[in-house]
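We modelled the chain as a single entity of 188 amino acids. Its sequence is:
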Amino acid sequence: MLATGLASALWAVAFQASAQALPGLSLYGMPLKGAVAADFTAAAVAAGARTLAPKTTGTLEFDVKQAGVPALERLTVVVKDMRVMSARFDIKSYGQENEALRALLVEKYGVPRAVGAGRQPFPSFAARFAPRGSFEWEFAQAMKLVYSQPALGDPSLTYLDSAPAAATSANPAPRELPLKLDGLREKF
């Protein structure tokens, strides 16, 4: 009976802590909200990241294997108007390094919420085996940290300014759809 009461009390504390937005989100010692891309690059390089040629326009690419954080391999930063919009790490999907990364995340930010599962806290996030799905922490100023472990594909850790994304989805650009239904009706 005591164990049941203790477990439900711990669950309530974990739920309450994860329901509150955490203070500002930073990476490489600098706040990410509105970060200038050149300043972020300097901070990343000072932390041990190595710059790579970007794959697409509007991104910065880094090799972060030597930056001292377990499981992090590659960092892609999306830049708009010379400001950082998001920073996405490709991470190892298995092993002790992945487990150590998840433990560090829980130690630093607390228990994440499972995305799409009623947004409930997920206390076993730092367990030995990586859970499948997406897990997030919310921060002040509409910043989010999302750990994604898909069933297929590589896991990622994304620092995201969700305000521009929310503004875009709230006010989508009007689209005109061609109404060529005559030939379409015979296709299904």
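As a brief sanity check on the tokenised model: The longest helix spans residues 2-19. The helical segments are 2-19, 37-46, 95-109, 162-170.
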